[in-house]
Amino acid sequence: MRARFLTANLCSIVASAALSVSATAGEWRVDRLDPGAFDRVAFAETGAPAPNGLPDGSIARHAGGDIRAAWYEAPTNRYRHAILGDGIEAGVLAVETADGRVLRHVLDDLHVFEDRTPRLADLDGDGRVEVIAIRASLVEGGALAVYGVDGDTLVERAVAGSIGRANRWLNIAGIDDFLGAGDRQIAYVKTPHIGGTLYVYRFQDGQLSRVGSLYGFSNHAIGAREQRLSAVADINGDGNADLAVPSADRRDLRLVGFVDGALTEFAAIKLPARVETAILTEGSGPGLAFLVGLSDGAIYRISR
Predict the structure, then answer these.
(1) Which of 128, 132, 147, 140 is nearest to 165 (CA)?
(2) pLDDT tens digits, 177-212
């Protein structure tokens, strides 16, 4: 899962590191951390391995609601896309409910979960937890899919954004209240390797509807296992969640959010190399910063 907050120990490491300014971008600055002051292991995923799952799939967990955990099972190579590097996808989504039941949703032979770890959130605020997944068709490519528990069954509640062509993919960028509407919306990048578009969808009354889009993003390097090249934070100080997502060539960090109902870019911060690691956040308000590893092997702090 995408990391949003640093641990106290991690913050202390960053605070004590000597910084050298490498670039500026308006009110934002890009500082390179001194070699050896920060280890890339801090960007590693920490979820428990999924049982009967993908080679490096992990378990997603949720603190309350009717679903407490979710993971993918039944590895399969029936979809020859290998966008995540190894060509092994999942045929089953499994969840553990609050009362300890394990329920499964089994895909047919024309679909896979082209994903590594599901995401859990109460999207519409009804107290029930939704599972957000990347479901791919062998014919129509990737789509955004939402699942939930109905009695003793794990059901597909909504699907949207089908690309319409095999071997085309999308990657989740964040799930939060970007609209300031009191529920949670899903942001993802469609075709992040070939001119990606950032879309935001809202789940209401059992349906997914698009509420915003912007062109020119990428939150994944083709063939890489890392899917967390994005971050969520209140960037403009209006109390709502915003997004930090790399540009299509991953050499700019684009900061976007909703202003008067429209998805708007606040800044595009030029970077000295391409984004390669997960993007972590540190602090909030005027003290907000992003930490990221780039393709030059160094780690940078982006702050105001």
Answers:
(1) 140
(2) 999 999 999 999 999 999 999 999 999 999 999 999
pTM for this model (two decimals) = 0.91
The residue behind tokens 């553990």 is 96
Element (H, E) at 242: strand 242-246
72, β-bridge pairs:
93
Closest of 100, 96, 46, 34 to residue 70, by C-alpha = 96
**What whole-number distance in Å separates Cα of residue 75 and Cα of residue 290?**
34
Q: Is 10 helix (H, G, I), strand (E, B) or coil?
A: helix
Question: 133-154, pLDDT tens digit by residue?
Answer: 999 999 999 999 999 999 999 9
| Cβ(68)–Cβ(62) below 8 Å | yes
Computed on alpha carbons and rounded to an integer, the radius of gyration of the chain in Å comes to 19
66 and 103 in contact (C-beta within 8 Å)?
Answer: no
What is the overall mean pLDDT for the chain? 91
CA end-to-end span of the chain: 26
Q: Of the candidates 259, 156, 240, which has an alpha carbon nearest to the alpha carbon of residue 203? A: 156
| Strand segments (E) across 128-227 | 130-137, 141-150, 153-160, 170-176, 185-190, 196-204, 207-217
Amino acid at 87: G
CA distance 75 to 88: 6
Torsions phi, psi for 183 (to 5 deg): -115, -165
> Within 13 Å, how many C-alpha atoms sit on residue 268's CB side?
11
What is the distance between the alpha carbons of residues 147 and 94, in angstroms, rounded to a whole number? 10
Residue ranges in the chain assigned as alpha helix (H): 8-16
